[in-house]
Amino acid sequence: MELDLLPLNLPGIDMTTRPLTIAGPCSAETEEQVMTTATQLASKGIKIFRAGIWKPRTKPGGFEGVGEPGLKWLQRVQKQLGMLVTTEVATAAHVKAALEHGIDILWIGARTVANPFAMQEIADALVGHDVPVLVKNPINPDLELWIGGLQRINGAGIKRLGVIHRGFSSCDRKIYRNLPMWHIPIELRRRIPNLPIICDPSHISGRREIIAPLCQQAMDLNFDGLIIESHCCPDCAWSDAAQQVTPDVLDFILSKLVIRSVGETTESLTELRRLIDECDNNLIEILAKRMRVSREIGQYKKLHDMTVVQTTRYSEILDKRGAQGCMCGMDSMFMKKIFEAIHEESVRQQVEEINK
Ligand code: PEP
Ligand code: MN
Fold first, then answer.
1. Could you read off the pLDDT of 85-109 as tens digits, one per residue?
2. What is the value of pTM for the model shown?
3. From ligand 2's centre to the CA of 51, what distance in Å?
């Protein structure tokens, strides 16, 4: 099912210059916190204010948002500062309340997008309304589920749609709170080219130190916008304190961004791309050759009644190739990933061979 889309077309926002920027606290906490943060952001030229009113929390007992009274605070931001406002909706009741209060843009959170029943409920509540909706990626790295959610909202007649890339839940939190897995939004762009993509470096990173490089990466991938959590006093925030930045810091981060143009294909770029194609062809040929050898090994193992996976050999390959790759200027983690994937396919082919 193709999406029937219209440009976001947000009043008063120049949609031709990147990034489209949305900023504001994770949660609306008090009227004063909302107004102070929004005033500071407005003074830095931010035109779209975000704040969560209903907060999906992993465990009960945490701060679950101020609820409907917060919508009045967002109306004050609209009236006094002339900003557009956006908040998260997760149920039909949220949609109804947000629309009654004239919220300009709605977003749907990652946990909600993972649940088709919730998405359909929200879609049904949106029928007959023309409001832009931003759909976050689901917490699990499932592009089809993300697209399915978009289809449900679009099926309700919402044509001004965008997505927010906020990373994917993982138990590996060494660097990121949510793994960016950039290939997923890139594939989404390939499949639906006219759908605006907004990156949420705050929820990807979970910590303010790496927000700047994530913003730059999103811009270098030609994403359309950024949604960044900003709080007048980040360390006192009631939710997501570690990942919020002051409006001052946000302004600094944005001022350092390098926005490159998509650019026309120049002749020298064509030549470089030809070289890349050639490299890829060689890679595929050499991989196919490696797999043929693997299958022969599979036949040998079958003949001699040996198991397919031999852990010592596998560790040796990972270590050696990691070191070799490093010497050639590549990242050892990258090498590890590549050889894990090659090994997985190799094992699959050997198992097929053994069971012939
Ligand atoms: C948020 O934006 O504050 C939020 C809860 O985001 P997510 O749905 O991405 O976790
Ligand atoms: Mn948050």
1. 999 999 999 999 999 999 999 999 9
2. 0.85
3. 9
